[in-house]
Amino acid sequence: MSRPIRIAAGQGFWGDWLEAPHRQVTGGPIDYLMMDYLAEVTMSIMQKQKSRDPSLGYAKDFVPLMERILPVLAERRIKVTANAGGVNPRACAQAIAESARRLGLAGKLTIGVVTGDDLLPRLDDLLVRGHELRNLDTGRPLRDVRDRVQAANAYLGAAPVVEALRRGADIVITGRVTDTGLTLGPMIHAFGWPADAWDLLAAGTVAGHIIECGAQCSGGNCLVGWQRVPDLANVGYPIVEAHGDGSFDIVKHPRTGGRISVAGVTEQLVYEMGNPAEYITPDCVADFTTIQLRPAGKDRVRVSGVRGRPAPDNLKISLAYSYGYKAVGTLVYAWPEALKKARAADRILRQRLADLGLQFEAILTEFVGVNATHGPLARSVDEANIPEVQLRIGVRARDRAPVERFTREIAPLILNGPPSVTGFAGGRPKPEEIVAYWPALIDKREVEPCVERVDV
């Protein structure tokens, strides 16, 4: 029977704790380091970067992070899977290769590059050939917004990651590979699971889902007993200790903060959950209702019993398109009558915008400290004793001009509106482009992953 493997989560999103990967590779034995960078809007941000500079389009902070740990990876033979490549995995791989050479690691590491997910160059051809790419939420065909599309990426599964590892890659850099595929891939590779072993693939998918958000399953952002989670300043990121039969434990390195518990793992399991019986991925459909969790020691949760079914014939596509513009401004009002002052300022600002004839698709006001979190469900408060209230008002419009004018109308309230503004948080707001999300499906046969090898 194959020995267990340990897959450590190092990043849960683009912008996660930079210390986590170093702590994972130096804090104890692991076989793989998994780093997940991509959210839906991230791809459009990277596409914009690449359009301005063809050498960009990936998570740039991934490169210095890797440069810091490359010697440890080479010494301990730890393999990496990361979708930090964004819309330019080749450029990302070249940057890592250059870092490795500077560190004297030439000939000691091999990089695998996974591409094929970027459908933006093929979009018009797909539409001409009858692929309507209808929005999964609204049913609208993509042609309605085609001229504003900024990014289009199919969700690849674990298969190309497995292929890269099979070809000897020590570091696998991908574009839009699913979060779960980055963990499932090493398990398939290590244990030799066949492509139709649906229960095993589902188990690996569940493992990937549990650790994809980093410390969110090891004590961070934990609702149950959050006051008792120890030493979050030194939080240990999760590790999957996987077995060939599909069972696995969630653990963390010893002498780290945070907590691995059934409650914490359960909270992560229901994160971004639709139908729990049909967690659909390119690799399989996992039935989360079959998952069995039990404590197996201090900071150790055992996961078993996962059942799965064949994956569908379609892949999901994440498209991003330009929708319009928005801006958000804030003013802080102090006691006494802080809430009354903030409400009066809101009325005055709205009146001025109306008097100017400005057209907005939406205007949203929140009173932070009163109703910003729970909205109309917020309990009534003792207005007289509220020490301070932040007025936060945002606007949205299809055109930039009214949003631009809004940004100039909020600051004058400091002197010509209600009294006691104590802070103009962030200065005058700036218009921001709104990037909207368009989910769609495409036949798997239209997407061909490509795996390349880059020798350092």
Structural class: alpha+beta
Strand order in space, largest sheet:
11-12-8-7-1-2-3-6-4-19
What's the β-strand tally?
19
Please tell me what the overall shape is.
Answer: globular
How many independent structural domains? 2
Question: What is the subunit arrangement here?
Answer: single chain
Cα-to-Cα separation, first versus last residue = 33 Å
**Radius of gyration (Å):** 25 Å
What is the helical fraction, as a range of percent?
Answer: 25-40%
Averaged pLDDT = 95
Uncertain segments are: none
Biggest sheet architecture: 10 strands, mixed
Characterise the protein shown here:
The chain has 456 residues and is α+β, with helices and mostly antiparallel strands. The protein has two domains: 5-117 and 155-312, no CATH class; 321-438, Alpha-Beta Plaits (2-Layer Sandwich). It is built from twelve helices and 19 strands. The chain has helices at residues 19-26, 40-52, 62-76, 89-102, 123-128, 159-166, 181-191, 198-211, 262-269, 338-355, 400-409, 413-416, and strands at 5-11, 32-35, 79-82, 110-115, 149-154, 171-174, 239-242, 248-251, 279-280, 285-287, 292-295, 301-304, 307-309, 314-334, 362-368, 388-397, 421-423, 432-443, 450-455. Helix 3 (62-76) crosses helix 4. The longest helix is centred in the last third of the chain and has 18 residues, at 338-355. The protein is globular and about 70 Å long.
